[in-house]
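Could you join me in thinking about how sequence relates to backbone shape in a protein? Label the sequence line and the structure token line clearly, so we can match residues to local backbone shapes. Once you have written the record down, we can walk along the chain together.
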Amino acid sequence: MKRKIIVPVIVLMLLVTTYLIIKTTVLSKVSKFEKSKVELIETGKKEKEEAMQDGKEPEEELEEYLKEKYSKPESAVEYLFSIALQNDVNSYPGAFSQEQIQDDLFNRKEKDKAKLVQDILSRLTRDGKLTTVKVLKGMMVFEKGSIRVICDLFYEDRQSPVRVNIKVKKEKMEHLPHGDTDFHDISEYYYIDSSVWEIINKIENSR
């Protein structure tokens, strides 16, 4: 009788231990940060200017910096709100997973996609009123390569921040560095994998 009780208890303990280990590992993947509107805009502009300087390939040092930064979950959130504050319509697709871009943009009736993205960016920042983005923690997602990033969005016309829960997903990017056709460089970056319309709904309906 005791053996029948002990076995399920041991199994339960193992499951709980495994869950806690996984949870701790996931949480450690997300680095907390707080960035102001000015910091988000300046960082975004600097990275873009350096990457596209004179139309040449980015320097190796810059490439390594970008790989390290955008291989972290919180970088996807930072990138989204950086381009939103810059009102950068052209860079918008680069913030989302391929599936999510399809769902959010191309399954909409609006034919003018640039106009649709313009509306999205304006609503994410509440017409430029976004002042600070603060990443708080990560949460587990039972989906390979995915994690949820919890962050607070501060707006100048609101007393309390808006807390949003954004799923990000790691996707592989394959490219040919510096014209070398024999070597394929593969990077793994995080992209937003939550519907932008859900994020906007949260922003516009929070009290």
